[in-house]
Specification:
The chain is mainly alpha-helical and 77 residues long. Helix content is 60%, strand content 5%. It has a two-stranded antiparallel ribbon with strand order 1-2.
Length: 77
């Protein structure tokens, strides 16, 4: 069974989120991500998706992408 790498999760994200992730200063917590997205004038759908991230510290864009992937696809059994 093949597993996806965290970097592949990043390329699966909507382009708007990919662009925003490039501009974040890491480490960052969920509220910081949402604040940056608001400053970037992200659409409400993106803000809602970012709001579903677990409230924790993220060390890089791949960590965020992995959590968003779990949100979109669910956690494998």
């Amino acid at each position: 069974m093949e597993t996806e790498s965290k970097s592949e999760y990043t390329t699966e994200l909507p382009v708007e989120i990919q662009k925003m992730l490039k501009n974040l200063d890491f480490p960052i917590e969920r509220n910081g991500i949402i604040e940056q997205a608001r400053k970037s004038k992200a659409i409400p759908d993106i803000l809602r998706e970012l709001g579903m991230l677990p409230d924790k510290k993220y060390n890089n864009a791949e960590d965020i992408a992995e959590e968003l992937h779990k949100t979109y696809m669910g956690v494998p059994a």
